[in-house]
Amino acid sequence: MKHWAIAVLAILGCGLRAQAPAQVVDTTVCDVVKKPAPFDGKMVRIKGTVVAGLDEFVIKDAADPNCGFQVNAIWLAYPQGAKGKAGPAAMVQVQPARNFSGQYAPPARTPVALDKSKDFKQFDSLLAQTHQKGSDVCLGCVRYEVTATLVGRLDAVADATLKRDASGKILGFGGFGNMNAYPARLVLQSVSDVTPKEIDYSKIDDATKGNPVQELSLPGSTPLPLAPGPPVNDPYGTLETVQKIIQTMPDSPAKDQALKAAAAYAKERDHNGVTIGFGTTNEAAARDAAGTKDSPDGILFNCTFNSDKLPGPALGLALAHIGEHVVDLRNPTPQNLGAPPILLESDGWVVAVVTAIGGGVRFVTMPGGYELWDGNWPMASRNDQMAAGLKDFLNNEAMLSQ
Predict the structure, then answer these.
(1) Using one digit for the tens of pLDDT, what is the confidence trace for 120-140?
(2) 46 touches 58 (CB < 8 A)
(3) What SS3 state is found at 23?
(4) Rounded to whole angstroms, how far apart are CA atoms 329 and 259?
(5) Whole-model pTM?
(6) Measured between alpha carbons, how far is 248 from 218 in angstroms, rounded to an integer?
(7) Radius of gyration of the chain from Cα atoms?
(8) Which candidate, 145, 140, 141, 139, places its Cα nearest to that of 126?
(9) pLDDT tens profile 160-207
(10) DSSP secondary-structure letter at 178?
(11) 10 Å Cβ neighbour count for 396?
């Protein structure tokens, strides 16, 4: 009996040791981005600045935001079921379909329990507050960025690039977050030392002062209201309006690209592997696993929109933006095959602003207060001003570089 008891205690002791808290490694965003794979599965502590936007929810380095890589940030996610309020307004994730012909083994990851402390609630609340002044369409614009100490599980891959054959067909999967473009993702366990910084939108607020509320409409038709947003169960009505707006535009390569973006989604009740969903976009969900539906090419493109963050015309422009991402990922042109995320993100914003201009929107602002479109710009300088604003946004806010 004594030996039996000793054996049981030994087994229980092993179990207790196996459940001991994982050691937390102190690191920086730039160190992770430089060589992410060795951090995979580790619990880390990072001092970083969190930025939320249209299709980003990322951590940039608090000391040196420009790490010198194509992707200079870590994607941030809450554990599944966290029910947080902050996060991207829209995103697309690429996932193997049930009939995927390649090899795919879903990674096994240790669950993370989120500490919903007072610090977390403050952190989440700050990042969920939107910028609501002015009469511009501000796509995914939040009021604050937040610097904090973040602890969580670091998921990482050596290369976030989607693996393709010579024809461009996707054979393997890489990273995390929007477009699966991020080589590292932090699944948050706890947050502390929360320091908010209010983002300066005064330039665009002054430019739009006294102008009527923005609307997206067909010539001679009833505009889509700015608020409240379209019903979440009818994205196809908004998508149909977007398609009609683009069709009325003068012929140009930009119009052709916008039409392709709007056509990326399946028609209602059809299934082409591209889904439109509404809800939270901030959780590390089951998208790491293979899907339960088939797709014509064995790939699923899961497009999720947070309608609370996309009132009125913003949803239509977000549909155009994310549709362009689907086109670039699913059927890349030769020049876009293997293109860095900064070029794909630029394509999405260009299609969004083309749609806005076609729908009579006079002002479009990007997160961080960057001006993408101003109908008062002189005709001769519009392209240059748009390009300059987009470049600054991509480098300084979206944390992407060539």
Answers:
(1) 999 999 999 998 776 678 999
(2) no
(3) coil
(4) 16
(5) 0.90
(6) 8
(7) 22
(8) 145
(9) 988 888 888 888 888 999 999 999 999 999 999 999 999 999 988 888
(10) G
(11) 15
